[in-house]
Write a structure and sequence with these properties.
Length: 472
């Protein structure tokens, strides 16, 4: 691994700059439904988020992704913004219903052409495309046929992966199968706060397995059609789980949350097994007989790296979680504790130590697997002032702390290859609608005007120097 440096001769009073390894990948991340808009153009079919966002009370303010940041019509402008930032990589997702409107059958030419246009612009700007195949926009027809709790959905996903890999494999070298399957399964099918909005804990556990199976099937399908140099990955929102106290009850609560939030995905994908304690914890909900012979060989098809999305730690104590809960089998044993200290506009605690804990844990548990931070960032109540500036010092501080944690992890021998800031643009923040702004570029949704925030300038400088400036 390359060395992690500090500048060689800092003046005595000056703190050193934290330098990242040569070749460190600096990116921004987005997702199709959150930015593209053009929901009905060129044959795009409805996804579960088109349906869900229209259900009364599900998304704040009744917002939908119909127009979003209108990225579909503004690709050159948005790629130019990234060129100004100097990013080396751009992580975006491909909208399944734009490419295969019903989740079956041949690809739609216009949909694939959109991603050809995007990747052409990226190539011309010298930015490497990193494509995610599934960032939560399941074609509605597949949900109507049973959704992720149904095994067939995993088969459809592998077919879709092959179709996209064949069509775009000449221009995209880095692929991610799924984004955050924990959210898709448990927020979507157990708690019901994300699409499709079901509240059936047993179905959510099936969904989780079928998402793992979909991932493995897609890895195989992509390997069959992509050049051997292609990099294939999976992005998990791993939970930096901490027990509130050292009591046995708190530690048991943390173990249950770790099983559902982390090991339910890490074990099938990297070790070809399901966590025994999780099967025992959920025995009253399911006997797991939907896991068929050979499935865990498919789920553990080798990947080239692991993507990690991190925002805040998860502090767990013994107790009960209100129903409906995204923690099947743990809801009567665990409750979640909000620490004191600074919070973002999402009410999420600001705690970069959790990222360091996760990275060093993965160094020990998954030796030899390169890691990439595929999302990290923060929402604040930003606004453009009359001079057209957006001052967001809290975001700059958040990013600084988290990148310093990544740097510390590198120094501790963690193989982190890159960092993708969530997000390039303010966008449709799922159940929160447009009220939560994660972008380093402000979007005025009425005029679609883009204004880089102070954090954008800070990020550009960090990338240009491949190092974090010293802080106060
Ligand atoms: C992650 C999602 C991403 C965005 C951020 C804030 O869970 O992957 O789409 O909403 O949270």
């Amino acid at each position: 691994m390359t060395t992690v440096g500090t500048s060689p001769h800092p003046r005595p009073t000056q703190r050193p700059r934290l330098t990242f390894p040569a070749g460190f990948r600096w990116g921004t991340a987005t997702a199709a439904y959150q930015i593209e808009g053009a929901a009905r153009e060129h044959g795009r079919g409805p996804s579960i988020w088109d349906t869900f966002s229209r259900l009364p009370g599900k998304v704040r303010n009744g917002d939908t992704g119909d127009i979003a940041a209108d990225h579909y019509h503004r690709v050159p402008q948005d790629v130019a913004l990234m060129k100004d930032l100097g990013v080396t990589d751009y992580r975006f997702s491909i909208a399944w219903p734009r490419v295969q409107p019903t989740g079956r059958g041949p690809g739609v030419r216009a949909g694939l052409d959109f991603y050809r246009r995007l990747t052409d612009e990226l190539r011309d700007a010298g930015i490497r495309p990193v494509a995610t195949l599934y960032h939560w926009d399941l074609p509605q027809e597949l949900e109507d046929a049973g959704g992720w709790p149904r095994r067939e959905t995993a088969e459809r996903f592998a077919e879709y992966a092959a179709l996209v890999g064949e069509a775009l494999g000449d221009r995209i070298a880095t692929w991610t199968t799924l984004n955050e399957p924990w959210c898709a399964a448990f927020l979507g099918y157990a708690e019901g706060v994300h699409a499709p909005g079901r509240t059936d804990p047993a179905a959510a556990l099936r969904a989780a397995h079928h998402l793992n199976l979909a991932h493995g099937g897609a890895v195989r399908a992509l390997r069959a059609v992509l050049p051997s140099t292609a990099e294939i990955s999976l992005t998990l929102n791993l939970h930096a789980v901490r027990a509130l106290t050292d009591s046995e009850a708190d530690r048991d609560a943390a173990r249950r949350v770790d099983a559902l939030g982390n090991r339910l995905f890490l074990d099938p994908v990297f070790h070809g097994r399901l966590p025994d304690d999780l099967c025992a914890d959920t025995a009253s909900l399911t006997d797991w007989s939907f896991v068929r012979e050979g499935d865990l060989t498919v789920t553990s098809s080798p990947v080239d790296s692991l993507g990690i999305n991190y925002y805040a730690p998860t502090i767990v104590a013994s107790g009960t979680h209100p129903s409906p809960s995204p923690w099947p089998g743990a809801e009567r044993h665990a409750r979640f504790v909000q620490p004191s200290g600074p919070r973002t506009a999402m009410d999420w605690p600001v705690d970069a130590e959790g990222l360091y804990e996760l990275l060093t844990r993965l160094r020990d548990e998954l030796p030899g697997v390169p890691l990439v931070i595929t999302e990290n960032g923060a929402a604040y109540d930003d606004y453009a002032d009359p001079e057209g500036n957006v001052h967001d010092p809290e975001r700059v501080a958040y990013l600084h702390e988290h990148l310093a944690a990544v740097h510390r992890a590198l120094a501790a021998g963690v193989d982190v290859r890159g960092y993708f800031l969530w997000s390039l643009l303010d966008n449709f923040e799922w159940a929160y609608g447009y009220g939560k702004r994660f972008g380093i570029v402000h979007v005025d949704f009425a005029s679609q005007r883009r204004t880089p925030k102070d954090s954008a300038r800070w990020y550009a400088e960090t990338i240009a120097r491949n190092s974090l400036p010293p802080r106060g």
